[in-house]
User: Which sequence fits this backbone?
DNA sequence: GAAATATGCAACTTGATGGTTGCAAATATA
DNA sequence: TATATTTGCAACCATCAAGTTGCATATTTC
């Protein structure tokens, strides 16, 4: 499961990190100041995000700037498309119709 | 974290369940036949998905038909929108420009 | 009514995960 | 060169999650 984006975004702290870094690239230290946990804990979250390429790093001197990499997030969006038809209104109504038909036939 | 959709879709088996049920509503037994694990394991996955309302149930006699509920998945899509500008080409190029500017200023 | 079927719940085990602490490596600064 | 800063890695611990097994409940069928 290592490098799995679904696993990566399952943690609320990691989602917060993504939101922060998507707004502006940051170093681990700067990032850790936004959270109650230790720097190392944040660092481990960064590692998970970097492992699945949601973050990319750019070393500048002794600092490492992490920035958001949209490619993998786009993959998640692509995964979602298979469900999109279910929440577009016209298809949603068709679904409901089919569910009702199923329920009725089950009762026979 | 109970009832969290990000947690729910983190598991690959649960994602497979969602795909199957989005295509056609099913009972737990029918669903379990698609997997190597036990019926109870699948049942627990169903419970997780139902707890966060990704699945809705419809009891028919002694069977329970689970069907896909798009509302929560739509919420996930909504969460994704905050990142979408990053992978639309024009904004992506702007991001790259800003990243480069940052790198240059860091070197001073 | 007894047996079979469909399902959920509880207990237990094992492995993964998130957190902490300590330390080492690389770079900047005095 | 000695010291401070930034960061990553490894070890350890506590909790959570996924799986199995066993059992109870509700419904259908014989």
Assistant:
């Amino acid at each position: 499961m290592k490098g799995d984006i679904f696993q990566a975004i399952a943690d609320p702290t990691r989602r917060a990190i993504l939101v922060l870094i998507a707004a502006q690239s940051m170093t681990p230290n700067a990032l850790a100041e936004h959270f109650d946990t230790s720097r190392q804990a944040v660092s481990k979250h960064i590692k998970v995000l970097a492992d699945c390429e949601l973050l990319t790093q750019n070393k500048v001197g002794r600092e490492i700037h992490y920035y958001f990499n949209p490619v993998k997030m786009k993959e998640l969006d692509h995964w979602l498309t298979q469900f999109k038809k279910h929440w577009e209104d016209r298809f949603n109504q068709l679904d409901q119709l089919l569910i009702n038909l199923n329920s009725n036939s089950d009762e026979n």
Observations:
- Residues 27-29, 39-40, 43-44, 47, 61-64 of chain A lie near DNA strand D (CB under 10 Å from a C1').
- Chain A has a mean pLDDT of 88.
